[in-house]
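ok so I'm stuck.
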Amino acid sequence: MKTLDQSYYCGASTTQIIYETIGVYFDRICDQYPDKDALIVRHQGVRWTYRQLQEQVDQLAGGLLALGVAPGDRVGIWGPNSYEWVMVQLATAKIGATMVCINPAYRTYELEYALNKVECDTIITAEQFKSSDYLGILQTLAPELADCEPCALQSKTLPHLKRVIRMGKGKSPGRLNFDDVCAMGSPRITRVLRS
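replied:
not stuck anymore, here's the structure
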């Protein structure tokens, strides 16, 4: 992949560009409006203030760092709209990883192509959506998941993918649960993220 030499392009505009990272800008807004509504996801029963969202995002960011996700790594997100999707978007931005949006309608061959094309080393996935069994599709592409330790996938079909994180409350071989990853974010890491 071509290496970028700048993070923004400033064309003709009357609006001033914001010269801050998404993570820094997000934290500034959270500090400015801590008790205002930030995220409402009705179908999941979520209504978080900026302070609550910031805490959740920092926990996930810390968990991803604890797993070894580093700046520049590509983290795929595969699923419909959810609070987890928003958390992944902000957490990856805070740690300098790149979030890769995987089309929720992708079938097996499309997912394989996308993950390999962008060299995703981590995927965060919903359990299912409509008629798509995401966990089953991943198992088909990487049968090694059945016998590997979480975060230690070595797949012939998906050679770059090392970590599979599943949403929902269930457990699956070779995968970590989203809530468990969030729980790995320590207060020490959270302080570093905000400095």
